[in-house]
Amino acid sequence: MSRSSSWCRISGDGPLPAGKAFLWRLLNRLDNAWRPEAGHPRLRRSRFAPGLDGPLWEKIDRLDAGLSSPARRLVLHFLAQFPWAKAIAHLGPLGVADLGCGRGEAALHLQDFTGGNLQTYQGFDIAPRPEWPALQAKHPFITFRELDSHAVLADLDPACNLILSETSLEHIPDDLALFDQIAAWMRRRQGPLLQLHFLPAAASLELYGLHGFRQYSPRRVVRLLERLPENCRATLVSLGGNASAELHRLWVGPRHDRRGSNPGLYNSSLRQALGRDAPSEAPLFYALLVTGGAPGQSSGSVDQLADDLQFPSDNALQ
């Protein structure tokens, strides 16, 4: 049985000889183009509209100094606008496992966005970061672990009820095997589980260059969903569009970064671009929202959680 959702088994995260770099691009282009829009009865589709009002925009500016890439900014807006109160009403205080946590700043962002309802945060990454000790010392709810992609969930806190990944799955060679681990863990626990994965879409291939093993399409997402228990329900939310992609090309690009040369102009251009992205356009990123629980928990709280976290018809999170 395949352990990866993609054809490409070459990592783009390090320097590659010209031949391997060409093969990486070719395999990803072909894979992205082959039946990208496959659906599934347990997968819904939606599109996110970021809030561009003054207070929210200024709040997120303070978190990232106003210089995030369009995709990163969309992720922050999604987390800030997510209906955390509804999730917490079902799950209780949140226990988060962040797969591919980097420096760990998501812990503080989530504590802010959830209104202080983050009870525990476990950050996992392939190598320790110098910022980890200070964060753990200052915030007792935060812990960090080195990530073993073959046994990610071995050290998972039993209180975990939210599995998060922010642009991490594309770096894991065997992403289907990871979802097999998540499924096995779900079968051993009680209560509903929320998963939130941010995934690069096909447009990221040209924007980011060599990066990870893959990008994601709805077809690939279906392959992930099929590894989880049958009571899981998912929503694939499109983030960004053509204007955001063009802004990335002009200001960020794979070989240049002009954001620091004129931060004010970049920030205002970013705000305008996010407002011009159209629902019909190909996204930059996806947010994959999955709700579920152990087999036998297909009714009651699990289904109600999924229904409460569905998005209104205007595709904007309120």
What can you tell me about this protein's structure?
The chain has 318 residues and is α/β, with parallel strands linked by helices. The chain has one domain (18-92, 161-308). The protein is built from 12 helices and 8 strands. It has helices at residues 18-33, 54-64, 70-81, 84-91, 106-113, 132-138, 175-188, 204-208, 218-225, 242-251, 263-276, 301-308, and strands spanning 43-47, 94-99, 118-125, 142-146, 162-166, 193-200, 233-239, 285-292. Strands 1-7-8-6-5-2-3-4 form an 8-stranded mixed beta sheet, with helices on both faces. Helix 2 (54-64) packs across helix 3 (70-81) and helix 10 runs antiparallel to helix 11 (263-276). The radius of gyration is 19 Å and the shape is globular. The protein starts with 17 loop residues before the first helix and ends in a 10-residue tail after the last helix.
Topology (SSEs and partners):
Elements: H1 18-33, E1 43-47, H2 54-64, H3 70-81, H4 84-91, E2 94-99, H5 106-113, E3 118-125, H6 132-138, E4 142-146, E5 162-166, H7 175-188, E6 193-200, H8 204-208, H9 218-225, E7 233-239, H10 242-251, H11 263-276, E8 285-292, H12 301-308
Helix pairs in contact: 2-3, 10-11
